[in-house]
């Protein structure tokens, strides 16, 4: 069986390159709205803390995706990084949504009309995953907006519909395999060369579905209380005996691939990231395993950010993808179309503009 991903592809965005060239000479200090030259001993966490007062470095990763994709946990000294403004703009002179508006205008002038003879591609997503997918957000959230935009880029002229089914498990168990929908937005995919390390869920993700190119990357992190005996863990083996909470519906394969399986550790599944965070603070679990932004959001809601530590070393970068069932006879066609659109969006800078605009909208509503 062919791997879902057959190799890394890097896209140097013309918009990001232009933004980097227009910035002042890289500074020694980590300041937002500037470039920064990495110094020995720097980490993404330490740079984010100095520039933004938070260890959440997702925005830095988004702006420097191509430079960091190979090894985000090891920063070579001398690497120049764009440190976006607090609201996500690449420079103080740029405007959010400017690239989106330009691409929409170009599309309306040059693209062929939607082919009404071809059935629309049927997307399905679910609520409750802000800022990535939720009906209350502009365009349905960042990942939904990227999906529907990709369908209109890269030479595509296919129509599409989006429906919402909040039972995420039903997407992969029933809705895609039965043909009720064509593509689900969006799912993480494991390293399919390591099937022997995966549980049934991870194996099915590799064998039963076709995945698009990466749509978005997140840091899957390990959080503990500041006084936990696991706080200074430098390897996953240092977590032996830990009670690790992973919210229900969240993929277990990042833990499985790290060797964190029972009985080496104890898995605890609770309903939401906030439930896991509450259990951590109460001492009912030792570790919260979840992506960085959701962890920070849960701790912020509980007002306990000063009580917890996010491990800077034990980080896995997960990629989210659009997926289609292998039982769908047009699955490869649909995924190829979305890949063409994604590629164009990366190169034009529209991908980053949608991400930054969506994050800014979400942050404004949560101030």
Mind explaining what this structure looks like?
This protein has helices at 14-22, 44-52, 58-63, 65-68, 98-110, 142-150, 168-175, 200-207, 253-257, 273-281, 292-302, 331-348, 350-365; strands at residues 34-37, 80-83, 121-125, 160-164, 183-188, 209-211, 216-225, 243-245, 266-268, 287-291, 308-310, 316-325. With 367 residues, the chain is of the alpha/beta class. The protein has 3 domains: 14-83, Roll (Membrane-bound Lytic Murein Transglycosylase D, Chain A), CATH 3.10.350; 102-216 and 320-365, D-Maltodextrin-Binding Protein, domain 2; 218-317, D-Maltodextrin-Binding Protein, domain 2, CATH 3.40.190.10. The N and C termini lie far apart (48 Å). The longest helix has 18 residues, at 331-348. 42% of the residues are buried.
Low-confidence stretches: 1-27
Number of domains: 3
Portion in helices: 25-40%
Radius of gyration: 20 Å
Number of strands: 12
Largest sheet: 10 strands, mixed
Structural class: alpha/beta
DSSP strand content? 15-25%
Order of helices and strands: HEHHHEHEHEHEHEEEHEHEHEEHH
Task: Provide the residue-averaged pLDDT.
Answer: 87
CATH class of the largest domain: Alpha Beta
CATH architecture of the largest domain: 3-Layer(aba) Sandwich
Cα(first) to Cα(last) distance is 48 Å
CATH structural fold name of the largest domain: D-Maltodextrin-Binding Protein, domain 2
CATH superfamily of the largest domain: Periplasmic binding protein-like II
Number of helices: 13
């Amino acid at each position: 069986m062919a791997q879902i991903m057959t190799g890394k592809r890097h896209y140097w965005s013309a918009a990001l390159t232009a933004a980097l060239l227009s910035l002042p000479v890289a500074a020694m200090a980590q300041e937002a709205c500037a470039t920064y030259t990495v110094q020995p001993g720097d980490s993404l966490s330490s740079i984010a803390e100095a520039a933004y007062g938070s260890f959440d470095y997702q925005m830095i990763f988004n702006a420097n995706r191509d430079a960091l994709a190979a090894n985000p946990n090891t920063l070579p000294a001398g690497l120049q990084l764009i440190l976006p403004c607090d609201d996500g703009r690449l420079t103080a002179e740029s405007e959010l949504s400017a690239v989106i508006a330009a691409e929409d205008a170009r599309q309306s002038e040059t693209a062929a009309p939607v082919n009404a003879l071809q059935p629309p591609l049927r997307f399905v997503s679910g609520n409750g995953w802000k800022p990535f997918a939720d009906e209350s957000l502009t365009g349905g959230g960042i990942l939904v907006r990227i999906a529907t935009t990709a369908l209109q880029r890269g030479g595509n002229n296919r129509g599409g519909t989006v429906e919402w089914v909040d039972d995420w498990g039903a997407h992969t168990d029933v809705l895609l395999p039965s043909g009720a929908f064509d593509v689900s937005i969006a799912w993480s995919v494991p390293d399919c060369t390591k099937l022997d390390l995966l549980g049934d869920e991870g194996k099915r993700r590799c064998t039963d579905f076709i995945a698009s190119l990466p749509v978005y990357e997140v840091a899957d992190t390990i959080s503990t209380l500041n006084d936990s005996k696991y706080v200074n863990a430098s390897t996953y083996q240092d977590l032996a005996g830990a009670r690790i909470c992973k919210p229900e519906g969240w993929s277990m394969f990042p833990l499985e691939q790290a060797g964190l399986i029972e009985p080496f550790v104890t898995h605890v599944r609770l309903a939401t990231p906030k439930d896991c965070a509450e259990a951590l603070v109460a001492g009912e679990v030792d570790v919260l395993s979840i992506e960085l932004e959701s962890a920070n959001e849960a701790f912020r809601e509980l007002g306990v950010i000063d009580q917890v530590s996010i491990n800077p070393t034990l980080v896995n970068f997960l990629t989210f993808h659009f997926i289609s069932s292998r039982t769908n006879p047009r699955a490869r066609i649909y995924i190829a179309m979305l890949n063409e659109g994604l590629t164009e969006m990366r190169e034009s800078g529209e991908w980053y503009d949608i991400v930054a605009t969506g994050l800014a909208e979400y942050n404004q509503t949560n101030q």
